[in-house]
Design brief:
Layout (H helix, E strand, L loop, with lengths): L23 H17 L6 E5 L1 H9 L1 H10 L1 H23 L5 E5 L10 H21 L3 E6 L6 H8 L3 E4 L9 H8 L4 E6 L9 H15 L5 E5 L9 H15 L4
Helix pairs in contact: 2-3, 2-4, 3-4, 4-5, 5-6, 7-8, 8-9
């Protein structure tokens, strides 16, 4: 972080489309997806996790600085994000060609901690819509993931039309998980939003109760996937993950 690719506003012009088929790390990702498909296709769902244009840009500029640039130089930021989207589309086509079931898109900046629904829509809405359409055209499923507070679920659903929306904190227009279900449960399959680090800390009883609470709040009548609200910690026991699966299996049948 001491030597970012984008050091100042002028450096945004350095962000240009690249050939994903010649990018070493993108090729590695493709190969990982292919290996997973070869091993699990037809038995387990296989999805790629891909950063959206603004999320990618955040790693080139730094998230805090990008958040400031979004407010002060939105046109410059959008031009760079659009160029990234060109590469992401080609990258997504590479991944979909492996036979994966779809892509989970990270939309970090589509939340109230960094911007507003209108600003997000202007900066990333069109490019995310195009990326999602590419996945649909390939027969795949789109999942949007945003673990930030006050996520713009409505704006992102309008733009991306994801089959699944993975989230952790409450959206900007909801006061409870029950309200999330009421507003958006008929528009997308909700996914989440168990506290990830509780898989490491706390006791089994608390973990189990949070899983049950999320099922009670969001599983009735339409799709819900019980899951952590963000990455399952690498140092967490798989025991908590198994408990989550067992709870989803046993409680899920009760709310159909």
């Amino acid at each position: 972080y001491s030597d970012m690719f984008i050091k100042n506003i002028a450096d945004y012009a350095k962000v240009q489309p690249v050939d994903a088929t010649q990018a070493h790390r993108m090729i590695l990702m493709r190969d990982v997806c292919q290996n997973l498909v070869d091993e699990f296709k037809g038995r387990k769902p296989v999805f790629a996790y891909v950063l959206g244009p603004l999320s990618t840009l955040g790693y080139l500029r730094g998230q805090k600085q990008l958040a400031r640039d979004i407010r002060t130089n939105p046109k410059t930021v959008k031009a760079a994000a659009d160029n990234i989207a060109v590469t992401l589309k080609q990258f997504g086509e590479m991944l979909m060609a492996t036979g994966i079931d779809g892509i989970m898109w990270d939309t970090y900046f589509g939340a109230g901690a960094t911007t507003t629904p209108d600003i997000w829509t202007r900066l990333e809405g069109d490019s995310m819509a195009e990326l999602a359409q590419m996945v649909r055209d390939k027969g795949g499923i789109n999942i949007v993931h945003s673990c930030q507070p006050k996520v713009f679920m409505g704006a992102q659903i309008d733009a991306v039309k994801p089959e699944v929306f993975s989230f952790f904190k409450l959206p900007n227009d909801c006061e409870s998980y029950k309200e999330v279900k009421e507003k958006y449960g008929d528009k997308t399959c909700l996914m989440g939003s168990v506290t990830p680090w509780n898989s490491v800390f706390g006791d089994d009883v608390s973990w189990d109760q949070e899983c049950i609470d999320r099922i009670d709040d969001m599983a009735a009548d339409s799709g819900f996937i019980l899951a952590p609200g963000c990455f399952y910690p690498p140092n967490a026991s798989f025991g908590r993950a198994k408990r989550m699966i067992d709870i989803a299996t046993s409680n899920g049948t009760k709310v159909k």
